[in-house]
């Protein structure tokens, strides 16, 4: 049994992670400690789960000897420093998304995890979604051929002004480090790179406080180019109602379209690139067949979280391969930072990212 | 009976326009003259339709007194000079798309039509497509509210290298004035502006000869901004296989999605903008209902052409309102030119377009 501690007993910590554990959804782990700065939350733990130790200070919990691993579910900026403190105490770490606000900090976490020899994972729970897993397997496995184009319109997370008014830290550069990119998009930016790979450059149109009275971005259209010439478009906003979630990927062997919980696959009989070279008819095109792929439906939010948590525990106790290893947290965040930077500077950003420039530009906005 | 003459007896002139007229699809007009530089085509006319006069020279046909109106179906660059010659002869004019390659020339055609007092229309036959007509009515009629965003992925016109190799003039700056934008897209760029209106700026990523051995563009991602803050994305290519045709429009009162011959409408009970201002709940959103709109299906290519042709004839004989008036030809072409210019110069292009700059930049590429 891996002994788990949670830092941050809020929406994610209590209502997703702890709820799943209490609900018997975690097989080889148990919750033995909870840390929060709010005494009321700790009082609830004491009253309802007397066997669980409570802490107001994360460091005390990390050094208590009561836990083997820690689940970090605090505000964004705290993820890296808390994770590194825990790693120093030789604890395994699972952090909520985003991995952080700066890629630099994520890089440091990864180094520390390696040095400390602990397991480090990120709650990219959408990687357990069967639709996205299938897309990842098909694109990375080569079944779609060479990537040519993708487009993802992901706007189905409407947020009214009341949402932004609910907490002073929300949607501020200093409090969150951004808007829709850093709060709603981390899963999708991770899936983008997990499925399609990392682009070589990003040009983005970023609108700050366009639909809401906020200082950060709430409307983004990003354009990416890949080393092989492929391009991609990513459109997001928190003001689209009704929103859309449509992810299309084209390779030289076919096309995937994920929308409305369905994944459609069109498979070409011959590579388009090869056909283009060899065909002699003016209006001909490669033959194809289209079918819906059989992916067991998305099992929902809590199950997805538990999928990552069980995998994290099995990685600790049985050496199982991580679904969402810490090293990969840097990729989605790099895309996020590059979009921000492109918007601020009004120009194309080449990757790898100039991390110091990003940090300086972000801090100008504090 | 309006007496019609056709200039250019090729794919459009003979197999679409004349075929429709011969097939009895035109009620109040008859074909009385045909002009082509190819004697074989004229020989076919003489042999099969002895009552139709044939001409090798357009001007001779225009001055012959045998026709009241002319249908121009020649290569792109010839549309404006031929149209103006016909207007000088007081003939009504219907030209194939595109209206021309330069907006300046289209502007001149419009002036001349006004001075000559003739009817001038453009073969924007897709305006008769019931799906697009419905979208036009709903957006321009205000049913969708204020425009917020559109995206159109229009890539379902695959062209292999053999297509481009079939004629030396194809896909050259000098021969056609561009690639996918000027050859495949004119209808769609017209529909864009007809349905959503004209943007105030365009930023485009334009790839020349990316997928084919050609000098002009075959892959475009364009981003547009509107005066009211709305944005749009238009993605096109001739190398996507299988291609996509998906047009989504979001207003503050709802959303339209046109794909696969279906038009889906989601209607909000209250304007999103108003809801955003007045709602007090963090995770609430306006209530909505989604339905498929009943649009009689697209009747096909020839019928669509005949719709515009019959309307043109009725405008001449009965003063009926034009579906695709000449003045509007400038709008789609302005968007096309702005996308080209943005791609060449690597920067955002504000509208109205600097027409002289566009012409100079295009001619640099001859």
Descriptive notes:
Chain A has 366 residues and is α/β, with parallel strands linked by helices. The first copy, chain A, has helices at residues 11-22, 39-48, 58-63, 79-88, 103-116, 130-140, 161-164, 180-183, 186-196, 272-278, 301-318, 329-345, 355-364; strands spanning 2-7, 29-35, 53-55, 69-72, 92-95, 120-122, 147-154, 201-208, 217-225, 231-237, 245-251, 254-259, 262-268, 288-292, 349-350. In chain A, helix 2 (39-48) links the parallel strand 2 and strand 3. The longest helix of chain A has 18 residues, at 301-318. The first copy, chain A, is globular and about 75 Å long. At the A-B interface, strand 7, helix 7, strand 8, strand 9 and strand 10 of A face strand 7, helix 7, strand 8, strand 9 and strand 10 of B.
């Amino acid at each position: 049994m891996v002994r788990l501690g949670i830092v941050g007993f809020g929406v994610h910590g209590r209502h997703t992670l702890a709820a799943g554990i209490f609900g018997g959804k975690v097989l080889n782990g148990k919750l033995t400690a909870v840390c929060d700065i709010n005494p009321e939350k700790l009082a609830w733990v004491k009253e309802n789960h007397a066997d669980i130790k409570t802490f107001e200070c994360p460091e005390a919990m990390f050094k208590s000897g009561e836990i083997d691993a820690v689940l970090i579910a605090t505000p964004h900026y705290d993820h890296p420093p808390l994770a590194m403190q825990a790693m120093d105490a030789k604890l395994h770490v699972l952090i909520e998304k985003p991995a952080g606000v700066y890629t630099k900090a994520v890089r440091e976490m990864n180094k520390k995890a390696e040095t400390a020899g602990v397991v480090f994972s990120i709650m990219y729970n959408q990687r357990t979604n069967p639709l996205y897993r299938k897309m990842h397997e098909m694109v990375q496995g080569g079944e779609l051929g060479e990537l040519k184009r993708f487009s993802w319109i992901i706007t189905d997370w409407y947020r009214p002004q009341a949402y932004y008014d609910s907490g002073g830290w929300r949607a501020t550069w200093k409090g969150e480090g951004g808007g829709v990119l850093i709060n709603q998009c981390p899963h999708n930016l991770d899936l983008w790179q997990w499925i399609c790979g990392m682009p070589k450059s990003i040009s983005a149109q970023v609108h700050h406080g366009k639909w809401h009275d906020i200082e950060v971005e709430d409307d983004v259209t990003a354009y990416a180019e890949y080393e092989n010439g492929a391009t991609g478009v990513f459109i997001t906003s928190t003001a689209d109602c009704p929103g859309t979630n449509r992810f299309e990927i084209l390779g030289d062997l076919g096309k995937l379209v994920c929308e409305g919980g369905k994944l459609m696959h069109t498979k070409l009989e011959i590579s388009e690139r090869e056909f283009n070279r060899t065909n002699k008819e003016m209006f001909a095109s490669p033959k194809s067949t289209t079918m819906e792929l059989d992916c067991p439906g998305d099992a929902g939010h809590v199950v997805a979280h538990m999928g990552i948590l069980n995998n994290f525990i099995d990685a600790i106790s049985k050496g199982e391969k991580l679904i969402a290893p810490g090293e990969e947290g840097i990729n989605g965040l790099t895309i996020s930072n590059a979009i921000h930077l492109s918007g601020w500077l009004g120009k194309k950003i080449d990757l790898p990212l100039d991390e110091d420039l990003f940090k300086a530009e972000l801090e100008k906005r504090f």
